[in-house]
Structure formats: C-alpha cells, structure tokens
Structure to design on (892 residues):
C-alpha cells in the first residue's frame, strides 16, 4: 500500500523553542494511524506542521507532493481535513452554516447533497439542530459537528486531534465507531492523535509513540497493545 | 404634531446616513476588533470621486455605482498596503495607524480639491409630498430608500451568500476558518472593501445636505460612532437601529431642547457615546465582552 | 553591570540640552524665540500625554481638550478677574488636573478602544463646547491675553548677556523653559519610582498588576489627573504665548499633533516628548517655508500645500512610525547607540550583546 502522507525528519517549533526533533512517520492510503504520547510530546504540533500552522524543516509529502512553502488554505484545499484541538467550531454561526463552511469549496452539487444525507445519517442530532447556533451544542455534539464538517470537505486524509477530549465514555465510543465507519466506507485515511491509547490502538493499523519530539516506539496497533513494557512506560495503562 | 412627525422623518433620513457609516465601522470591527478612525475620511474621498465624475458630465445614477466599485477597490488596497503589514501589532497601534490614515486622506483631499466647500448635486427633486398633512421631502425619502436598499444588500450578502458566510467565519474564527480552506487574509481585505463601499454611500448621501469639503465627515463620523456604540459595536443590525435612533434624537433635540441648535447637536452625539459607554457598554444588541486574562 | 555599560550617557546630555535651551534665545530673534516657546509648550502637553499613553497604557485622542480647558481658565481669570497671568498658570493646571482626575473615573469602565473613541469625540466637539457659553468664553470672538513685560532683574540679566532689551516673547520663553524643566524633572521622578512602576505594570497587564497588589483604579485615574495637569499647564502657557485664544485655537488637529509628537518622539521615554514636540511643531512650519521657496512648483500647488501639507505629512509619519519604529526617535537612537557601542567595544558574546535596551531606565 502506498503512503498518502509521509513525514521525513520533521523539525518544528514555536519561535525559539523547538518541539519536534526529527519526526518521521507515514500514513498509508485509506489507513488509520494513531499518534500517542504524553502531554507536550509534540502530537498536536505534528498535526499543525502538516497543515502549515507552525514553521518546520525536513519534508512533509501529501499524495506524493511536498507541502513545503504551502499555505494552510492551499494544503486544506488539496484534500486534508484537520479537526483541531478544541474542535474549531464557529460558535458565532449556526450548525448549518458550520456545515456549509465544510462544503463551501466544492462544486459537485449532487455529490455534496449525497454527503449531507450521509452526514445526517451518522449524526441525526445535527439535522434536528440545523438552525440553532453552534454554541448551544453540547461538547459531544460539537465534536460530531466538527467530524461532519470535515467529512463534507470530502478529504483524502483526516487529522483528528483528541476527539475524545472532555467527552463521556459512551459518547467517545460512538464517535470512534463513526470514525471507523467513515474510514471503511469512504476510504479516508485517518491520522489520529489521542490520549486515550486503548481505544486508539483498537482501531489503528499502525501507531507511533512520541516522546519529547521524537518517535520513541512504532509498530502495529495490536503489537503495541500486546507489549507490556511499552504499555507501562508510554501508554499508562 | 405635524412638525414632530416631519422632524422624525427627516431624522430617519439622516439616521440612514449615520447607519451606513456605522455599519462600515461595525464591519471592520467584526473583521479585526478595530475601530477604523479613517472610515469617515475614506467616505469623504469617495464622495469627491463621485463629485468629479458628476462634474465631468456623468449622471449621478451611473456615478453612484462606479464610485462604490472604486471605493471597494480602494478599501482593499488600503487594507493590503497600510493595515496588513501591521496585522499582528497591538490594537492601539492599529488605531493610531487608522488615525494617521484619516489625517493623510483628509490632507490628500485638501491637496487635490482644496478646502473651498462645493455644492454636491442631489439626485432627488427638492419638492415635498403631502402625506396626511405631514410634508415629507423627496430628498428625505430618496435618502431613506437608498440607505435602506444598501443596508438590505449588505444583509443579504452577509447572511445568504457563501462569500458572506466565509467573511463572517474569517472575522470571528480566523484559525478554524483557515483549516476549512477559507483565505482569511483576503477575507479581511474584502471586509475593508465592503466597509469602504458602504461608507461611501453615507458620504454621497450627506454631501448634498452639507457642503462637500475635506472636513465634511468629521461630524458625521461622531454620529456614526454614537450609532455603532449604541447598537453594540459588533452588531450590524445594531448599527442600523442605532443610526436611526441617533438621527431622530439629534434632530428632535436640535428643535425641542433650548440651546441645542446648530453645532451643539454634535454634543448630543458625544453625550450618547459617553452615556452608552458608561451605562451599557455592550449597547442594545451587543453581547457581553469576555475579558481575557 | 550590563545595564550600566549600555545605558546612554544621560547627565551630560541633559546638561547640554539645558545649556542649549538657556542660551538659544540670546542668539535668535524674538520671533523665533516665541516659536520655540510653543514647541516647549507642546513638549509639556506631550509629556502629559506620554504619561497617560506611554506609561499607563490609556490611549487619549482628545488631549487638546485639556489644553483648551487650561487656556480658558487662565485667560478668563486674567481677563475678567484681572488676576496676574502668572498666578493663573498653577490655578489652571490644578483645575485641569482635577477635571482630568474626575474624567479618569468613568474612563476606568471603558476598554482601551472605547476610551480612544470617546476622547476622539471629545476632541471633535471641544470647539463647539467652547463657543456656547459666549458670555464666559467670548464665543467665536475669543479672548485677548495681555503679555507681561519682563521684570527688571530679567531685563538686566538679558541686557548684560546680549546687550539688547528683553522682549515679552523672550520673557515668556524663559518662564516656559523653567516650567518645562520642572515638569520634565517631576515626570522623570514619577516614572522611576513607585507610581511609575505601578502604571507600567498596569499597562503591561491589568489583571497581573491587580494580582500583585497594585491599586489599578487608583493609578489609572491618577495618570489621567497628572496627564491633564500637564495639559492644563501647557494650555495656559499657550494662551500666554499666542496672546489670543478662540475655539478654533483647539481643533481636532491639535490633539492629533500631540499624538504625533508623543509617538514620533517615543512613548514611555522622558526625552521622547521633547524630540517629538520639536518634530511635530516644526514639521508643518518647515514644509510651509520650504515649499513656497521652490520656484519650480506651480503657485496652485504651493498654496494647497500650505493647507494640506501638515495633515499629509502627519498622516504619513504616524503610519510609518507605527509600522516600522514603534518606539519613535528615542527607540531608534537607543538601538543605534547599542549597536554602535557593541561595535566600538567589540562585544563578542552575542548573548550579552543582544540584551535589549531597557526602555524603563531612561
């Protein structure tokens, strides 16, 4: 399987402080890869580097093309949907307007309508609340809205930054089920950043564990789960 | 009573003028949390452009849209050249820059057209219509119609088009919008262009009433500040309602409160600003500001 | 150690400046002396604005209004109640300071942006407000102010040095200089002691300042009061030096001129207001004298430049300074000095060489 996203020896940081010290990883076409590690290990920074939110050196290639010197807008338009930390919901706008922002660049009207139907099938609650301000949604519903909006961009790769943050376990479970089903039915590759390592490893083909800006361990999801010492020292369960 | 109603109607007409300029202020405030002190001067410059076009024999109704397009382009250029380089500076730095811009534009207009007041032709007939004993001038009605139309267009653009949607998203949530492929920086420029065009309407509507000269908008901008603050500086609807209230209030105060005629009407504008800021800083339609630590 | 080594040589600079300003009127004409008086007056007002904007972080775009208040208090006392003008100066200063202090109380409730907006509106409305109580202010006719003759001791001293008689303008110059020196010295003492530290803390973060025990409301209103005190003094002296005031003496552009001076000189610095005032005062005068002397320019252009020149140049200067040199002339000089110093001493260690000049030491 060819890789849709490849990071090669990526260094990145904010101003004088550097956060990533040479991260290399790859996400296969249509695969699910998770990025684990403690707070401050550089998980979020890795995602931000991919969509041009921080300055980086090394190389990042998406679908074979280098993302060097591309602006966030260009990268996103190329087919990467990034659901950032805190979900990036526009609380000033309604639920419907948020969804329209997801599809606003697409010109394939009929397909867009199909995608809306599919999104509302996954998240019926969003259909009920279309006209309401997004600020009235609960945390779980906002996460759903963020996922739905990302889906409407019809990306080839989704970057999800801690989708489970602040949500009740039962909501987390259903959101992850939907992510998996999106991945399976639309062949969207997923790069998942998670604190909750158990649930992330369950659905990932590959996982990388970051430690202070470097990849400390990498391997198949099941393999890492089975490795007692990795679990103890990096995953905390 | 008839006199009162007449004053109210002409107050609504001037209110529409204030509302246009206040709306321009609100658009820029929403886009970057900044009060554009140059808004009035930009409108004045656009009005001088319209004046030159009309003077060269162009009909007012052709000069009007042409000026709007030029003002729109001018607003974008100003944002790109003057505002964007300082985008990350503290807001007070930006305020001083817009004040410098106001001074500069004022001087430029004086440089090109001089300081002698000129009469600007009104496109409306000077007659009045008798509505149940209340005489209402066609000029007032025309100003109300034009301002109303422009405000409606802005509303439709912002609320019911994709450009309007991305404009609002970019203004309120630049980071999130960027991740959705919205070209935030250009949206801000577009916001400046739009504000500049909307402000130009107020200039072209007020010029036949006052005389056209570089300092023409200096008083109007104070009323527009009052309108924007009264409506809650982030609310487009508030700007319109605030504009109308300020227009009517100032008109009535000028006629009914002894001693408040002529230039002291401006003090009413100042009074409204101070009263609102102290008693109800979020205005009529604004939300309570969150204080970030 | 580093601080001492990179600090500019202040004292001899201050002494040099003083000698210059003391001796200058003895070699220039009485008319030029009166121009320099107005530049010094502007410097006093700008110092007031600097304390408010630069040190306490509250942006006022309407400081011309305080100057107007001070000017009218003095002029009315001198004209209607026949008080000695020099006695009215401190009265006007204290009165304006009191008004400014009171003004600072509602200003506490305003966000910085709203404060700028409200003070700008005040500046625009000021001329109309002055016109109205015509019985008191003389309305559009304004008030004439009699300029005092120099007292004997000053006349004799001046004659001893220059051999010519001292004019009123020159006497007013020395009065202004004296007050300017005192007020600059007071400002310097203010900013390097407790109140100055408190104000800077508020400017850099109100919540943090309050958390470390600074009386935020108290110091913010105090800054307003002090700032207005300076503005009132300047206004009072301004009426004295021009000999005539009317509502049109205090247009919005005066407030903008003050802001230009504060920004160009360098906010949050003591020499800044003096340099800024000289710049803001002589820029329009200079351009008005230079442009008509250029015979190749058509007459029409020279006449409009006279009117539009100051506005255009102020606007351009404000924009450029805010974009490229937010610390003004003083900031430029200081970083130039640091670079020069590093070159001369061959400071090889980039870590210590990079130490930024502390804007709070001067």
């Amino acid at each position: 399987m060819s890789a849709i996203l490849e990071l090669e020896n990526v260094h990145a940081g904010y101003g004088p402080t550097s956060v990533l010290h040479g991260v290399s990883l790859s996400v296969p076409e249509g695969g699910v890869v998770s990025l684990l590690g403690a707070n401050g290990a550089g998980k979020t920074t890795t995602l931000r580097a991919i969509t041009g939110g921080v300055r980086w050196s090394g190389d990042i290639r998406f679908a074979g093309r280098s993302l060097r010197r591309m602006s966030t807008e260009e990268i996103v338009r190329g087919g990467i949907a990034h659901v950032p930390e805190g979900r990036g919901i526009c609380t000033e706008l309604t639920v419907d307007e948020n969804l329209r922002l997801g599809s606003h660049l697409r010109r394939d009207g009929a397909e867009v309508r199909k995608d809306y139907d599919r999104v509302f099938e996954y998240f019926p609650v969003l259909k009920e609340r279309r006209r309401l301000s997004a600020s009235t949604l609960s945390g779980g519903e906002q996460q759903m809205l963020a996922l739905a909006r990302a889906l409407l961009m019809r990306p080839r790769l989704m970057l999800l930054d801690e989708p489970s943050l602040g949500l009740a376990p039962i909501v987390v479970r259903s959101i992850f089920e939907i992510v998996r089903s999106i991945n399976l039915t639309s062949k969207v590759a997923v790069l998942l950043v998670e604190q909750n390592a158990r649930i992330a490893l369950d659905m990932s083909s590959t996982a990388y564990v970051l430690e202070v800006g470097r990849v400390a361990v990498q391997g198949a999801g099941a393999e890492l789960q089975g490795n007692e010492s990795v679990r103890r020292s990096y995953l905390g369960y | 009573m008839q006199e009162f109603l007449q004053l109210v109607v002409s107050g609504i007409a001037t209110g529409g003028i204030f509302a246009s300029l206040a709306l321009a202020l609100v658009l820029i405030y929403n886009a970057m949390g900044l009060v554009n002190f140059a808004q009035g001067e930009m409108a004045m410059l656009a009005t001088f452009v319209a004046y030159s076009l009309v003077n060269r024999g162009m009909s007012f109704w052709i000069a009007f849209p042409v000026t709007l397009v030029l003002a729109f382009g001018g607003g974008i250029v100003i944002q790109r050249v003057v505002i964007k380089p300082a985008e990350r500076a503290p807001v007070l730095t930006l305020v001083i820059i817009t004040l410098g811009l106001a001074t500069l534009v004022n001087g430029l207009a004086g440089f090109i057209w001089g300081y002698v007041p000129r009469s600007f032709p009104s496109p409306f007939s000077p007659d009045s219509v008798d509505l149940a004993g209340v005489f209402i001038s066609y000029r007032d009605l025309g100003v109300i119609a034009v301002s109303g139309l422009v405000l409606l267009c802005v509303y439709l653009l912002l609320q019911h088009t994709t450009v309007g949607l991305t404009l609002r998203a970019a203004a309120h949530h630049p980071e999130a919008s960027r991740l959705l492929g919205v070209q935030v920086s250009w949206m801000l420029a577009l916001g400046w262009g739009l504000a500049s065009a909307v402000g130009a309407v107020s200039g072209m509507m007020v010029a036949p009433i006052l005389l056209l000269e570089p300092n023409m908008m200096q008083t109007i901008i104070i009323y527009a500040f009052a309108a924007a603050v009264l409506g809650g500086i982030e609310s487009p609807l508030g700007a319109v309602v605030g504009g109308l209230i300020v227009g009517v209030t100032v008109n009535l105060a000028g006629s009914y409160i002894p001693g408040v005629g002529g230039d002291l009407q401006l003090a009413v504008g100042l009074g409204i600003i101070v009263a609102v800021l102290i008693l109800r800083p979020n205005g009529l339609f604004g939300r309570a500001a969150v204080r970030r630590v | 150690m580093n601080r001492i080594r990179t600090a500019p040589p202040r004292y001899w600079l201050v002494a040099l400046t003083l000698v210059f300003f003391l001796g200058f009127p003895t070699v220039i004409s009485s008319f030029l002396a009166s121009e320099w008086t107005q530049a010094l007056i502007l410097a006093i007002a700008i110092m007031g604005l600097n304390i408010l904007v630069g040190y306490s972080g509250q942006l006022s775009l309407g400081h011309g209004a305080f100057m107007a208040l001070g000017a009218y208090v003095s002029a009315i006392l001198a004209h209607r109640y026949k008080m000695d003008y020099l006695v009215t100066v401190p009265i006007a200063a204290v009165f304006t300071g009191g008004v400014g202090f009171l003004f600072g109380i509602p200003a506490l409730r305003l966000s910085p942006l709203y404060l700028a907006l409200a003070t700008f509106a005040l500046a625009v409305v000021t001329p109309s407000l002055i016109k109205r109580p015509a019985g008191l202010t003389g309305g559009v006719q304004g008030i004439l102010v009699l300029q005092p003759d120099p007292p004997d001791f000053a006349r004799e001293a001046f004659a001893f040095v220059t051999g010519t008689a001292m004019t009123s303008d020159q006497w007013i110059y020395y009065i202004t200089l004296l007050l300017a020196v005192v007020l600059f010295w007071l400002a310097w003492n203010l900013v390097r002691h407790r109140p100055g530290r408190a104000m800077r803390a508020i400017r850099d973060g109100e919540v943090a300042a309050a958390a470390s025990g600074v009386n935020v409301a108290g110091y913010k209103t105090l800054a307003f009061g002090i700032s207005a005190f300076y503005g009132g003094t300047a206004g009072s002296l301004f009426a004295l030096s021009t000999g005539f005031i009317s509502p049109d003496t205090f247009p919005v552009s005066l407030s903008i001129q003050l802001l230009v001076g504060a920004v160009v000189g360098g906010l949050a610095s003591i020499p800044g207001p003096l340099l800024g005032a000289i710049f803001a005062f002589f820029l329009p005068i200079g351009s008005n004298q230079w442009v008509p002397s250029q015979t190749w320019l058509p007459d029409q252009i020279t006449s409009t430049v006279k009117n539009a020149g100051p506005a255009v140049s102020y606007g351009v200067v404000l924009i450029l300074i805010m974009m490229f040199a937010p610390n003004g002339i003083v900031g430029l000089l200081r970083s130039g000095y640091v670079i020069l110093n590093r070159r001369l001493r061959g400071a090889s260690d980039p870590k210590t060489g990079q130490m930024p000049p502390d804007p709070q030491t001067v």
